[in-house]
Amino acid sequence: MSPLLGSETEPSVDRGAGITAPSGFRAAGVAAGIKDSGKPDLALVVNDGPYDTAAGVFTVNKVKAAPVLWSEQVLRYRRLRGVVLNSGGANACTGPEGFQDTHATAEKVADVLGVGAVEVAVCSTGLIGERLPMGAVLSGVNTAACALAGTAEAGLAAAEAIMTTDTKPKQAAVYRPGGWTVGGIGKGSGMIAPSLATMLVVLTTDAVVEPDTVDAALRAATRATFDRLDIDGSMSTNDTVLLLASGASGVEPEVDELAAALTAVSADLARQMQADAEGVTKEIAVTVTGAAGESDALVVARAVARDSLVKTALFGSDPNWGRIAAAAGAAPAALDPDRLDVTINGVLLCKGGAKAAERSTADLSGRDVVVHIELGLGTGTATVLTTDLSHGYVEENSAYSS
Amino acid sequence: MSPLLGSETEPSVDRGAGITAPSGFRAAGVAAGIKDSGKPDLALVVNDGPYDTAAGVFTVNKVKAAPVLWSEQVLRYRRLRGVVLNSGGANACTGPEGFQDTHATAEKVADVLGVGAVEVAVCSTGLIGERLPMGAVLSGVNTAACALAGTAEAGLAAAEAIMTTDTKPKQAAVYRPGGWTVGGIGKGSGMIAPSLATMLVVLTTDAVVEPDTVDAALRAATRATFDRLDIDGSMSTNDTVLLLASGASGVEPEVDELAAALTAVSADLARQMQADAEGVTKEIAVTVTGAAGESDALVVARAVARDSLVKTALFGSDPNWGRIAAAAGAAPAALDPDRLDVTINGVLLCKGGAKAAERSTADLSGRDVVVHIELGLGTGTATVLTTDLSHGYVEENSAYSS
User: A Gene Ontology biological process annotation (chains A, B) (predicted)?
Assistant: First the structure.
């Protein structure tokens, strides 16, 4: 497993449970016939309350999919009773008709749940530019509604139904002292870049959360986790992270406690996405320290994490620190080449901008690679998780439309 | 051949000639033993005058190789009598010792030519972080000095000696009415991004050029050509484009004429680099029109040209305009998704942000791909040349240190 983001303070995570671990939630995942393959492609998540506090974080791409435009609107009220998610089509770049499709899907879910459409968020993932087969979507909502359950199996089925090029379903849960819980499901394995990734994530909690604080708690969690996962620098049209709080535990944690639990689940889901990224053979953590500020640290870490020459070298298990230095030096951040240190998997290869040890002394034969760049300028620090650029990545993204 | 940058107004280019096409220049390329392979690795270019006007454009990477630091300094005087170039080692991230190596190389060239070291520029390309074998370099300068000639063969030998992962030497020349000429050699096939690329280019002319205008003319040429070639978004530590003017023709062209001739040679060398890029199977031109301004057009064109998902789709001959729309929408430029048109190889696939035609109607079976993005906002236009992201690129950059 790759180095943990904030691992020292994280609550322990249970990957055997997910979205239905907190009380007050039911879920379902079904094969609605949206995917030609016949695999599961529609999920439903329902918050049975007593509260329905919610928040969302969305892609900042200017080209936003219809479900993102819809869900951003309904989240203004900070309330959600249900979320419907589909794989097999992004419903992005589909014009006014695509937005009507999203609206009709929300109305259908509202109808079967007996709630209002403005209490239903919609998430989609898949190919951009094609309309969804609405007959399959709407009948799938019926099927999913009948399958709704609060069991672990139902939560896992929801995680499976949102997979695209993911090879494994992704879920996680943390149990907190006092009897409240955070759970989540996620999907994403390519087109992953800030802000967020081509990811859909639904987080649930049975904590009592005030509408005033739910948004800040979710943003604090995503900022430290999903926003620092960068697989290929490509930003999706559909990225969505939702948080639904049922209050069923009756416990109202401090905001910091809530944010820590949300961060733990989010960090674990991010690591699952990294481990399952398209064509991944190396799980890479790029940490920058000594930057003039945190934003500079992040800019440099991201530039190195995105660099094709760095990523292909690491695919080849080559500790090519010169490419790392070149990528860092090209980033729009303060950098003094004479103070630049580069350490790979614990071996200081570059000190003060020049060779400190033979490259062969760094062992990159394993799956995990830790790149540490010290800038020697200040106290700014940031870590970005990424993967290598492999034949598998090229194969997966050239041979299939996605 | 891919779409020409400014082809309509370009003088015709002769690839059978290069750096020795203009009068007043001699060149040589030899195998000095810097490369383990024994292939040619050291080139010398000499300006015999009567004038020695010169200019240079260099990488904007904050991590600059020793030869870049040296050549930037000597170019302050706008005069060069000679240029020594080596492949087989970048002499980057080599500390004060590396700078002393560059200085010693320039002194050696000055010695054999009977000029001052401040009249000698140095260029290096190859692996970052290793010192050069100075014995080989210095004796190679002697050998090259003996081989100097004003013949076409000598110019081609210089082009061959600066190759790294290039598979072909790159040279070009244009002959202008009135009897003056511009020639050039270049290398570069990966780590190519603005500003400039991992490229070394030496341009020569026998025009009479004033020291006051030489810099502006060179910058105008590079801005429209090398700065708009982006193979992998990775910016080198060693990029250098030099212009040497001998004045041997006795003709002093207008600045616009000179810039046009320099642009023609530079554009042709850039296209040769694109055609010979690492792993290339598609030569891609991304043109953005209708942007709010030229800088916005360039930002969007570059974002699309760099996007791994766009580049892998094009490797797979898949006209996946959704990925193009997503990459454009993620760029930091003004964009209205409802006004976005995407045309690939002449077929309008996306109109007003939604599907306009089946993707299969665009034919990507050939080597050339023209992506045209119309933003519908203003009059800003820019074209960036790139290549696809192929198995060959991954192979070349993972299996070998470079």
Answer: L-arginine biosynthetic process
One-letter identity of residue A70: W
* pLDDT band with cut points at 50, 70 and 90 for residue A59: confident
What backbone torsions phi and psi does residue A54 show, to the nearest 5 degrees?
-155, 160
Q: Are A58 and A167 in a shared domain?
A: yes
CB B306 within 8 A of CB B235: no
- Please check whether residues A244 and A287 belong to one and the same domain: no
Same domain, A202 and A80: yes
Tell me which of A195, A236, A312, A350 to substitute to probe the interface with B (most B C-beta atoms closer than 10 Å): A312
Whether A326 and A216 map to the same domain: the answer is no
End-to-end CA distance of chain A: 27
Judgement on whether residues B142 and B175 belong to the same structural domain of the protein: yes
For B121-173, what is each residue's pLDDT tens digit?
999 998 888 999 999 999 999 999 999 999 999 999 999 999 988 889 999 99
Residue A92 three-state SS: coil
Question: Kind of pairing, strands A240-245 and A53-58?
Answer: antiparallel
- The whole-angstrom separation of Cα B265 and Cα A303 is 32
Q: Is residue A1 included in any domain, yes or no? A: no
Contact A330 B393 (CB under 8 A): no
CA distance B128 to chain A (A): 5
Active site residue A59: no
ipTM of the complex: 0.79
User: Residue A146 class from Cβ within 10 Å (0-12 exposed, 13-18 middle, 19+ buried)?
Assistant: exposed
- Are residues A234 and B309 in contact, defined by beta-carbon separation less than 8 angstroms? yes
Domain range for B265 is 7-275
**B311-334 burial: b if 16+ Cβ within 10 Å, else e:** bbbbbbbbbbbbbbbbbbbbbebb
Give the number of domains in chain B. Answer: 2
Distance between start and end Cα atoms, chain B: 28
The Cα B165–Cα A3 span in angstroms is 35
Annotated binding site of A: 164, 187, 198, 278, 397, 402
Token pair of A125 as six digits: 């993932």
Where helices occur in B276-330 by DSSP H, the ranges are 294-306, 308-315, 321-330
